Structure of Probable disease resistance protein At4g27220:
Amino acid sequence: MDVFISVGAKVVQYTVAPIGRQLAYLFFYNRNIKDLEKQLENLKATRERVQMLVNEARSNAYEIYDEVSTWLLVEVDVELPNMPRQKEDGSHRNSSNLSCLNFVQRHKLSRKSKKRVKDILQLIEEGKKFEKVGHPAPLPDTKSSTLPADYQVLESRTLMAEKIKDALSNPNVNKVGVCGMAGVGKTKLLDEIKKLVLENKLFDRVIDVTVGRSNGVVEIQDQIGGKLNMGLSMKAETKEGRAPFLRNKLVEMKDKILIMLDDLWNEYDLEKEVGIPCRSESSKEGCKILMTSRSRDILTNKMNTKKCFQVNSLSEDESWKFFMAIVGEFDKSRIEHIAKNVVKKCGGLPIALKIIAKALKGKEIHIWKDAFEKLEKHVLVKIKGVSDQLYSCLKLSYDWIEDEETRLLFLLCSVFPDDHNICVKDLQMYAMGMGLLNDINNWEATKNRVIDLVDDLKSSYLLLESNSGDNYVQMHDVVRDVAKYIASNDDKMSSLSYGCGQSEWLEEDRSGSYNAIFVDCMDFSSLPSNFEFPNLQLLILGMPSFFGEGEAIQIPGAFFEGMEKLRVLDMTKMCFEPSRTSVTHSLKNLQTLCMSYCEYYDIDTIGQLKKLKILKINDCTFEELPANMSQLTQLRLLDLSNCSNLKVIPINIISSMTKLEELNLWRSFKRWGEEISYRNKLIQNVKLSELNHLSRLSNLRLEIPNVNIFSDDLSLERVEKLEEFCICVGNDSWGFRICDGYARRLMVNIKSQIVAIGGTLQILLEGCEQLYIEDTVGFTNCLFKLNGNYCNPRLKHLHIEGNSEMPRRIDVQVSFPELKELTIQGGNNLEMLWHNNRLIANSFCKLRSICISCCNKLTYMFTSNMVTSLVFLNTLEIDNCELLERIFEIGKLVDDAKVLPLTDLSLRSLPNLKYVWNNDPGEFLTFPNLKNVNVSSCPRLKCLFPASFIKHIEEIESLCAYEVDEIFSEDEASKLGFPEIVFRSLQILEMVVKRSFWFRSGSFPKLHNLKLKGGEDDDLVTLPLEMSQELYNIEVKKCDKLKFLLPSSTTFFNLGSLIIEDCNGMMNLFNTLVAKNLVNLCLIKICDCRGITSIVAEEVEEEEGEEIIFNHLIRLELRDLPRLANFYSGKCALKFPYLERLIIEGCPKMKTFSFGIKR
């Protein structure tokens, strides 16, 4: 009986149950279809959420994780035919009778819907896991190098760079040193080496770090973390935690990294102290290090470099060529002999040659003679590492400075530590406080004069450009040494730089006749008293690498005694109580006071410093501006920015500062005119109208939550006189995205309904250079419907974040003749960019960048007449516009041929986009500068480029094309006589392969990165790689017709990474001949390839004793390869000398890895 029951159960299991499932597909047809529609909506919502995260990450310069990008590109086949659907009452939506064929189709569609629902649910679950979609991207300059515009290629330096490159390529050398005297050109040589090693693919990234005498371990870590965009200061809360954090991050990157440490003066334990993992014979993880120093002993004995190169002075011939390239033409018959003698006196030192050549350029013969006579005089100086010749050259350049103001500013710059990024605004504040400028007593004139003086010093090469931007400068360490020496002898700006590497202020250093002192307090736990600096005018107590941790340093009560002449005090991260500190007595002559991140418990005493002209308090925690601040009637600058706790400013304080020229309350006080309860009493806050009493105010930065207060209280006259402003009207939701490169910035985010724009707001709108609008109540509509033609002659950057209240178009009456950047996000009501698709004269004609996002009613972008007006456009980005069908409308052009200088084109998530160009523009409109093209998630786009573009594609460097049938129409290209398509500059190619894969041998001579994903119709049998000697990365997914990967006809010496997934047509990747040439391969990752039986194919003519050496392979992954029997089964011996990680999973048939392995 049990047997019959068991058999019966099996019969039911294998017959009745399957039949029931099939019938269920018919019975639950409507339910399955509805379920599919519901889950499609859920998937759409999930994708929108992830896309928003991606957009935000991209705006912060993050790199998007590969798995996120892949997930967004996954296609779900849900295009079902129109089938009859039952209504709720059981009737059908069409009147046709259901035939047997209908039942078959219903069954098929219902079953397919059920299956698709499972796939969609899996996608939704995956999408919900994406809380983080990217990571901070290392700065681009770590992967590329451009020599400075004035860099001169010298044969001796080029040969030296080649030798250093060869040393760095040696796997047994992990540290290389470069030594030489001051001014010989070690730092410039590093620029050439960086360019050389990146071009030769020796390293993936090069990180240059300036060390110098003043930078310690923390500063070195900050520079590395900054270059890699790690957020090091946020991730590691203590100094001790920074080194292991940095070390782990560098190892995790898996990149080949070169770290260049320039200008070492001390010994460092790079591994334990700094956190730089150094490669060694026992560990191939980590970085290689290139160091420079004036001292060979530091490099060879203390830093243990394996190779050390000496950089010598230039020969006479090279010195002459170098000098002449700068000085230009002159009367050779009269001056050449003297010039050659001057060059000899420069001692072959590039810095001396450059400075002297710049000083003598265009001068008369008597100036040349005077220069030679002064250089010929023998001068003995005692400056460590600076030769007498170099000193004479720099001293001569200093003597030639004509006015005293420039000399004093030059000497002021020597107060800062070497390689310090000197803020020009700090120089302006110090110059005003110290009275360095003659006959100038206002802030605006001071700023302008200092900028002029800085430009003069930069043109003489006595100051240098800074990598931190236009608002900073640097001083070469040799120039600084000479400047400090001059200052000490002239007794004009004698200075002391103190504290670097010291934990206390020594007794013998607490007195002197210094005019200026810079103290690095990073390692101080406290500060002493009892100083005697009777001539001190400038004191800077700094935390140069302050990154937020630790307590503020306590200033003792008598600290400022003995500094009665102090005029400028600048402090960072200090803590003091003025009631116990000698502020009012010792600092009675103070004219500039700057405090950042300070703890000041009794701010009332600042009101007693009645001579103050500049008061800058940033990022401090005080809540109230005391009433006695009204005594500061001499103030020209009041900066209280980023003091977010400030909520009380009593009335009549600001209005009493009648000489005020600049007021900065950005990210600080917002409660204008409010009556608030503070310390058990009601206080009336200052009204915005008090600013109307400041007749000299020309620079204003503040936030005003209430637009009515702004319009009613601030006078038209006051607003009209503003030269610079940064004003937010309404709630600020932009954070730190606001660009600081514009002098006149306005942010508008108004929540209440506004009918018309006028008064002060209109004046700001018409005068701003950068305008951000977050529109929830139709403000943009009001803006574009001002009476008469609305014109802003200054606006350069317009950013609009809108909603359904936005206008349907940017009105034809609007004119922005200087606009360079236009960004529109979330314009749900926007149907066209310009009314009637035409522009008024001189409007939008200078646009360089257009970014459009989430404008779901927009159907097209540019018509022919508009395209030809955008003659400066170089960047076009469009994403997430659901109805957009076309980008460029190309009609019949009758004018002369136009060139559009477009360099970057990005089109993402445009589900209805049919074409980028509706017609082939031929000769009438060309795009010869196009470099970067990124097209993804545009499923209806059939062809990306018109055929005539083939002759204009040589500049394209990056091409990413997903869900595009064709890049070019091959048939049209043939008709126009273009038999071959060659991307001569293309380095990055990413695309989904579909039918008509048109690449030819020789199409990509410079290809560096290749990512291919198979499509439904792809016919890719082999990769067209015969031409690509530069290829470094290959990634191929879902190319089932691909039979083999790397042909033996081409060598792949530069290939570093090989990733293959879901390619089921291959039995192996490459043969032994190819394997022997993969000398730089670091990563092999093969997953989900059902056909692969071995990775390396055996050749017929192999001989025993031959070796295949994977000399750089670090990681090998083989996952889910059901037919893989071995890695290699031939006669050659395999070697993996640097293999660190081997992963083999899901390879059930692998019994032997290989028959000959040597490590």
About this structure: The radius of gyration is 35 Å.
